[in-house]
Amino acid sequence: MNLLFDLSKEHPTIPKKEIIVTIKSYQISFNIIYQDDNVFIIEIESNDQILPLLSSRLAFTHSISEFLFSSSINQEEIMMLAKSNPCIEEGTIAIRYKNRSQIQDSKIIVQNLASIYTKNKLVDLNEPDVEIYVIITDKKIYVGRLIISIDRKQYEKRKVKFRPFFSPISLHPKLARALVNLTHVTSESSVLDPFCGTGGFLIEAGLIGCNLYGSDIQSEMIDGTIKNLESFNIKFNDIFISDIGELNRYLEKKVDAVITDAPYGKSTTTKNESLQSLYLRAFESISSILTLNGYIAIGLPDKSYENLFKKYFQLKNIIILPVHRSLTRYFYIGVKKEP
């Protein structure tokens, strides 16, 4: 089966990396056919489970379709390829499209596709049995049979202002979900956030079924995280007060992933400890409670702590997130080094 992913384009690297890592976390093999900023196309073994899993997890993908063909904007080529890639499903049909080009007119493209795909079929624009989905760019179109549209509005409903306890310094839920996905976790994985704050990462990890552990040095944050998790009916294993250096005292076994946003400035509680000292203790402690080959995703204020990170973890990726005009966060993603 060939799959066409309609990417959100909200970040230059997250949409594609999120798809790749999420599929790999379930140990399913695939081949990349084509990728750019708009689409990601892969060849993957037909699997009844992977599509529901992907649709329930991906935060930076709009939809997943069975890929039919791509074409230049030449209308004769479009019609020839449409005839060569028929839609054999029975039932009503509709042609949907997304025009990401400022220079291409979607009308003639859609009309030509409709002349092929709706021939001898009943058109139903409200509840069709089959939807042909077209992504139009400046130089190419990508055509597929829509399998599922991803509900990305769910992330807006979980924004901090809708939680019973919140802090203005919190990542958007879709970013939190993507970072959870980038740590190779599944519903069987155990996840720890040792600077859990208001619980944003734990909410997203809990919603995909992970076993949750959280800690913070402030009792207010612990109480707030528990309130937020309970407001979404998310079960958790343990949420506890702890200094970053004392995680071993509270965890009975090692965890599969650590996902966190480390304190980084005057507005956060660092107990007057320098960031260099705090991060050194954090990396040592996190490394000690991660399983071998366990993943970490941690937000840092800049790249000056990269060598310190590499002392304990094999660096896999850096996700750069501009938070606002004067603040950029660097999320370092890595895997625990062998002793």
Walk me through this protein's architecture.
The chain contains 11 helices and 14 strands. The chain is elongated. The two termini are 41 Å apart. It has 2 domains: 2-149, VC0802-like (2-Layer Sandwich), CATH 3.30.2130; 154-336, 3-Layer(aba) Sandwich (Rossmann fold). Helix 6 (173-181) packs across helix 7 (200-207). Strands 2-3-1-4-7-6-5 form a 7-stranded mixed sheet. It is of the alpha/beta class.
Q: In oligomeric terms, what are we looking at? A: single chain
The strand order across the widest sheet is: 2-3-1-4-7-6-5
User: What would CATH call the class of the largest domain?
Assistant: Alpha Beta
Q: What is the H level of CATH, i.e. the homologous superfamily of the largest domain?
A: Vaccinia Virus protein VP39
Radius of gyration: 23 Å
Question: What is the terminal-to-terminal distance?
Answer: 41 Å
- Along the chain, the helix and strand elements come as EHEEHEHEHEEHHEHEHEHEHEHEE
From the helix content, strand content and strand pairing, which structural class follows?
Answer: alpha/beta
CATH topology of the largest domain: Rossmann fold
In total, how many beta strands?
14
Spans of at least 5 consecutive residues with low confidence: none
Helix proportion range: 25-40%
Biggest beta-sheet profile: 7 strands, mixed
Q: Please tally the helical runs, counting DSSP H or I stretches of 4 or more residues.
A: 11
Percentage of residues in strands:
25-35%
Query: What is the CATH architecture term of the largest domain?
Result: 3-Layer(aba) Sandwich
Number of domains: 2
The general outline is elongated
Mean pLDDT value:
94
